[in-house]
Amino acid sequence: MTIKNLDFPHTGYAYIKYDPPRMGMKRKTQWWCIATVDRGITAYYRNWVQKQYGLKVHAPSWDAHISVIRGEKPKPDLMELWKKYDGLKVKFEYSHLVYPNTQGKFFAIKVKCDKLIEIRKEFRLPADWDLHITVGRTYDTLDSIALKMLYANKGL
């Protein structure tokens, strides 16, 4: 029995984009491939985190997106693949469960998209990782986040 629909009950569409402008970034701005998604997804979950935990959560640098290649320059024999899928529309599935990353600064939701993993494999990049949509970032301290999440879950 599969529980796919329970893990990833929502579907959406994304458009692949290479080397998108990233305002304010001074390093690692080249060799990025992202899939842009509907801004309403991240806006909804940012609002949910803010209401649930009382945290101010800011939109990510590229707004709503899934990172496919993260500043990893292709090997010389694979350069012709760069921008191969620019503008391609892909279907993805996503979870409704928001989780904080290990540093507690970013909140995300898990994504499943075979095509995005295939792109990583074409570039001979590790493909055994979890895709995600970054919902947003908080500038609260980790201690503050933990306390707010604890109080919210306990109803204190």
Q: What would you say about this model in short?
A:
The chain has 156 residues and is an alpha+beta fold. Helix content is 26%, strand content 29%. The longest helix is centred in the first third of the chain and has 15 residues, at 39-53.
Give an overview in words.
It is a single chain. The protein has helices spanning 4-7, 39-53, 114-122, 142-154; strands spanning 10-18, 32-36, 65-70, 89-100, 106-112, 131-137. It is an alpha+beta fold and 156 residues long. It has one domain. It has a six-stranded antiparallel beta sheet with strand order 3-2-1-4-5-6. It is globular.
Alpha carbon gap, first and last residue: 39 Å
Strand content: 25-35%
Count structural domains. 1
Q: Which residues form runs of ≥5 with pLDDT under 50?
A: none
**Helix proportion range:** 25-40%
The helix/strand order is HEEHEEEHEH
Globally, the shape reads globular
Radius of gyration: 17 Å
Q: Write down the oligomeric state.
A: single chain
Order of adjacent strands in the largest pleated sheet: 3-2-1-4-5-6
- Structural class label: alpha+beta
User: How many beta-strand runs?
Assistant: 6
Largest sheet: 6 strands, antiparallel
DSSP helical segment count: 4
Mean pLDDT: 84
